UniProtKB/TrEMBL annotation:
It comes from Mycolicibacterium vanbaalenii (strain DSM 7251 / JCM 13017 / BCRC 16820 / KCTC 9966 / NRRL B-24157 / PYR-1). This is Transcriptional regulator, GntR family. The keyword Transcription regulation applies. Residues 4-72 form the HTH gntR-type domain. PANTHER family: HTH-TYPE TRANSCRIPTIONAL REPRESSOR YTRA (PTHR38445). One of its GO terms (molecular function) is DNA binding. Keywords: DNA-binding, Transcription, Transcription regulation. Coiled coil: none annotated.
Length: 310
């Protein structure tokens, strides 16, 4: 059964976030791709939902900059009424299912305690696929809802003012330096290649040469260091967007990450392609939740502008 959220559900979730101040007036909404990854929907559905918000005056779209929450002068929507109506619907369904008043009161109190203890955690990545994957990994490790932030669409934001904690793969620390006030408070994620990718690398050890591909010089260096731990032969690096794509032609093995935008016909030009998928280092996972809480506690102690931590 298809459980992909439709336009109505995505629109309601976005509207709820705007009404509750989760997306304050003047803030930029995450990209359609990032929201689609978070909601388990698709970019077209999210775009239509945002269009509906724009038609209602809740969002203003600025070409090449994004969608921004704007204040609605007229009292077109009352947040209390919206929440009260939704609560009525939930309670009515619960009553029909046989829950008593006492049971519902307890459930509401537990839910309030859970909501009040929730932390706003952001995960930053450079491409939508890795973003969704790392978001799920971190969310599973710390059991807290995690918001995705795409690097290419984060310009001008101050992430540690928007979120209680910001987590980023260690190889992207430099990339977020201009997006936070205190880089020392950013949680660096130690990612390792998935076992499937490592087995594939080990499986080509007898090949004399392979080529690693990434969209930046630093990415090429990182990938080369990773591959060099498992491959004893010659490793050449190609930086997509700078180096001549013809350098890929005839490569017996191509090792790429999800950020690399390869030519559409690349599979016909090389012998084999190994795509690197990431996982959280197991030695790091157990300590991740404690690191998140430590960062939040330190922020609360020093008092970070723009966020209040209870």
């Amino acid at each position: 059964m298809d459980v992909t959220p439709g336009v109505d559900e995505v629109h309601q979730r976005l509207l709820d976030r705007i009404l509750t101040g989760y997306y304050p007036v003047g803030s930029r909404l995450p990209s359609c791709r990032a929201l689609a990854a978070e909601f388990g929907s698709n970019s077209s559905t999210v775009d239509r939902a945002i269009g509906r918000l724009a038609s209602g005056g809740r969002v203003r779209t600025i070409p090449r900059r994004g969608n921004f929450v704007q204040e609605v002068q007229e009292a077109a929507v009352d947040a209390r009424s919206v929440v009260a109506a939704q609560l009525d619907d939930v309670l009515l369904r619960a009553r029909r299912l046989g829950f008593s008043g006492g049971e519902l009161t307890t459930m509401v109190q537990v839910a309030l305690e859970r909501v009040d203890s929730m932390r706003r955690i952001a995960v930053v990545e450079c491409n939508p696929r890795d973003l969704r994957q790392v978001q799920e990994l971190v969310q599973r490790a710390i059991d807290v809802e995690v918001q995705p932030v795409l690097l290419s669409e984060a310009g001008g934001r101050v992430l540690d003012a928007e979120f209680d904690a910001v987590a980023v793969p260690i190889f992207h620390l430099n990339d977020v330096a201009d997006l936070v006030r205190d880089l020392d408070q950013v949680i660096d994620l130690n990612l390792v290649a998935s076992p499937t990718a490592l087995r594939q690398l080990i499986g080509v050890r007898n090949v004399e040469r392979l080529v690693v591909v990434a969209p930046s010089a630093r990415g090429v260096q990182w990938m080369t260091a990773l591959v060099g731990q498992y491959f004893p032969g010659q490793i050449d690096g190609v930086e997509i967007g700078r180096d001549d794509p013809a350098l890929l032609d005839g490569a017996p093995v191509l090792v790429v990450n999800n950020a690399a935008q390869l030519p559409p016909d690349i599979a016909d030009r090389v012998g084999r392609i190994i795509a690197i998928e990431w996982e959280l280092d197991g030695r790091f996972t157990t300590a991740l939740r404690a690191r998140v809480e430590n960062v939040i506690s330190e922020r609360a102690f020093v008092g970070v502008p723009g966020r209040s931590v209870s």
